[in-house]
Amino acid sequence: MISSIAFAGIVLAMVWFAPAKASLGAAVQAAGQNAQRGAAPPTTPANTAPVKPTPRMADGHPDLSGVWWGGADVGGRGFRGGARGTPTVSYTSLYQPWAAEKAKTLSDKDDPTLKCVPVAFGTLNVSLYSVGAVGQIISTPKFVVMLQETFHGYQLIPTDGRPHRDDVPPAYRGDSVGRWEGDTFVVDTTNYTDNTWMFAEGRVSFHSDALHIVERYHRTDFNTLEIEARIEDPKVLTGPWNAPKATLTLAPFDMVMSLACTGVETQSLMDGAAKLKQ
Amino acid sequence: MKRKALTVLLASIALFIMAIPVFAHHSFAAAYDTNNPITVKGVIVQVRLENPHSWFFLDVKGADGKMERWSFEAGTPSGMIRNGFKPGVIKAGTEVTIKGFHARDLTQKVGMLNELVTADGKVYGQFGPQQGPGAQ
C-alpha cells in the first residue's frame, strides 16, 4: 500500500516538474471534452541545422524583430501552454490580506476580458501575447514596438533613455521605456489603469494603479527569445512577483493577424452560470 | 493482487493528470457544463471569427417544429485559422451537426462547440479541421 502511494507520488512529481507539452487537445480534455483532433502528441521536429546567431541592428544591439510564439497557436500541434522553469509562487498568493479577501468575492463572471478589456500582463505570463499566444516585435534603434495580436494591442517603447511620460493618462498596458543592458533589452512599465486583471480566462488577478512591471528580453539565438518579468504592486502585493521565465520561438511567418476583440456574448453565460450557484 | 490493482489505479490517475495542461481553458468550464453533452442539427446562419472566441449560429428545428436559434462558441480565430480553418469555408445555408456541451445557464440555447460535421462529412473540431495541418 505504502509503496503504491509512493509510486504514484513519484509519478506525480515527475509530472509536476516535467515540461508541460500541453496541446489544446489536452486543455479541452481537462474541461471534459472527449472528442479531439487525431493529432499525434505535440513534438518539435529535430533540427539538425546549426542554430543561427542572434541578428543585430546597425547600432550593434540585438534585433528582437519577429513574430514570437510558444511553438504553435492555441489549438495547434505543438502548442505549449505556459512558461517553463521551476514552479514559482502564484501572483495571487502574494495578495495582501485585504486583497485576498476581495479576491474571494470575485469569479469568472467578473473577468474584464469578457467585456473586451485587455489584460495588464499576459494570460500565459508573457505580456507580448496579451490574452493570446502570439505576438510580434518590430525593433528599430529608436523604438521597439510590441504588437499583441489578440485584442489588437501595441506598445511603443523608446530606447533613448527618456523618463516615463507624465503627460498621459493611465493606460490598460501602461507607459513603457526601454534601455539596453548589454544584449538584454530592459522594459520598465508604469502608469497602468486599475480596472484590468493580470490574466484572463476567469483567473481573478486584479491589481492597482501602482502596478510596476520590469521585463528583460534576451534573444539568445536567431530562433529563441527569453523573457523574464518582475511584477510589483505595493498597494496589492506583499512583495514582488517573478513570473516564470518564458522561452519563445520564432514563428515561421512574419505578420500577426489584425484581431480586435468584439465578442462579448460569453458575459451573459457567465452571469447565468453564477446565478445558478446562488 | 489488491496491492497490484491499487498500483495500477494510482498510476492510471497519474497518467490522467498528465493530460491536464499547465494552462486549462478555465472560462469554458465556468460557462459550460461538460456533464451535459448535446447534439444539434441545423443550418448555419452565420459564422463569426472573432476575439476572444469564434461563434457559429444556426437555425434548428425544435421538437415542436418551430425554428430555434442556437449559438456555439468555438476557438480563437487565430488558432482556428492557423489550424487550417479557412475563413468562409462554412457558409450560411450549410447543414451541420454540432456536438458540444450545453451552457450551464439552461435558459440560453448556447453550447460549447466540440465537433462540427457538415452534410458532406467534413469534420471540424473546436479549433478547425480534425485532420488539419496543425499550427501554421
Quick recap:
By secondary structure, chain A is an alpha+beta fold.
Spell out the key features of this protein.
heterodimer; A: 278 residues; alpha+beta; 10-stranded antiparallel β-sheet; 4 helices; 10 strands; globular; B: 136 residues; OB fold (Dihydrolipoamide Acetyltransferase, E2P); 5-stranded mixed β-barrel; 3 helices; 7 strands; disordered C terminus
Structural class given helices, strands, pairing of chain A?
alpha+beta
Oligomer: heterodimer
The total beta strand count of chain A reads 10
CATH class assignment of chain B: Mainly Beta
Q: Alpha-carbon distance between the termini of chain B?
A: 49 Å
The figure for the number of domains of chain B is: 1
How much helical structure, as a percent, in the residues of chain A?
A: 10-25%
What is the fourth-level CATH superfamily of chain B? Nucleic acid-binding proteins
Strand arrangement in the largest pleated sheet of chain B: 1-2-3-5-4
Number-wise, the strands of chain B total: 7
Largest interface: A-B, 77 and 65 residues
Helical proportion of chain B, percent range: 10-25%
CATH-assigned fold name of chain B: OB fold (Dihydrolipoamide Acetyltransferase, E2P)
Number of helices of chain B: 3
